[in-house]
Amino acid sequence: MVDTVIVEAESPPVSAVSWPAIIAGGFVAAAMTLILLSLGAGIGFSVVSPWSGAPDITTTKAATVGGIFMAVTAVMASALGGYVAGRLRTRWASVQPNEVYFRDTAHGVLAWAFATVMGVALLASAATVVSGGAAAGAGPAAMLAAVHGEGRPVAAWQAPLLDRLFRPDYAALTAGSGQRAAGVFAAGRDLAVDREAASRLFATAYDRAGTGLATDDRQYLVQMVAARTGLAPADAERRVAAVEAEAKAAAETARRIGMHLSFWLVASMLLGAVAAGLAATEGGAARDGRS
């Protein structure tokens, strides 16, 4: 009598992480984010108008609206990427349901993390290419200026303030003394240099616990404005005080907008991670026929 021995072939172990599914879900999330951001940009351009009555986009209310849109975009794109990652992952045989739930959630979070890191890397590489090309085209002189901090671009909110600060009084310039003073000063010094100096003074004025311009800086700025514009010293001092108040209000508004956008960015990222994990569990359940 011959005994028959049956040997069961064990299936090879399946990895707990399915990287192809994670990468696919990350790409889907990144593409969906790009689509929604493009849609948001189109909606934003449709409501912004250079004419009167258009909504102001430089307020904290606009930052809140933008933050809400970022959060909605993150939830929608991350949920779609997480569902794709959960649906495409390999099936785990002989794994406890609790472990399957954890792995599906982890796949969604990993897909969200992959999309986030990939987006940041692409933005960083694009910025590096643009800045490198600009430096290469500008030549050694521009690079030396950048090293020494010269020729720095003026912030968008500072440009109109500097225009008002150095707006000449043409009536005084054509009256004699103002014209001679401004003409002599302008002949030996570039206006752009004075604008950058004033910009740096305003930028550093509020590093002193909100005390504003120092006394010597204020006197220097008043003299500069008087010589440039032809205004009397008293009028130049009043103009400096008015522009300083506007600069302080503009800087505070910019700070508040940046604060709101930063908080909304953190909230949108956290909501995106949660949405990706939950959607991945739904996709995994559909993959295994449990839903």
Describe the structure using short key phrases.
rod-shaped; 2 domains; 291 residues; mainly alpha; 0% strand; 10 helices
The share of residues in helices is over 70%
Q: What's the tally of helices?
A: 10
Number of domains: 2
Specify Rg, calculated over alpha carbons: 30 Å
By DSSP, the count of extended strands is: 0
- Strand content range: under 5%
Helix-and-strand structural type:
mainly alpha
End-to-end CA span: 51 Å
Unreliable sequence segments: 134-152
Overall geometry comes to: rod-shaped
SSE pattern: HHHHHHHHHH
Mean pLDDT score: 78
Mind describing the biggest β-sheet? Answer: none
Describe the structure.
With 291 residues, this protein is an all-alpha fold. It folds into two domains: 19-141 and 259-288, no CATH class; 148-252, no CATH class. The chain is 75% helix and 0% strand. The chain contains ten helices and no strands. It has helices spanning 19-47, 60-88, 97-138, 140-147, 159-165, 170-173, 177-188, 191-205, 215-229, 233-288. Helix 2 crosses helix 3 and helix 2 (60-88) runs parallel beside helix 10. The longest helix has 56 residues, at 233-288. It is rod-shaped and about 120 Å long.
SSE layout and pairing:
Blueprint: H1 19-47, H2 60-88, H3 97-138, H4 140-147, H5 159-165, H6 170-173, H7 177-188, H8 191-205, H9 215-229, H10 233-288
Helix pairs in contact: 1-2, 1-3, 2-3, 2-10, 3-10, 5-10, 7-9, 8-9, 9-10
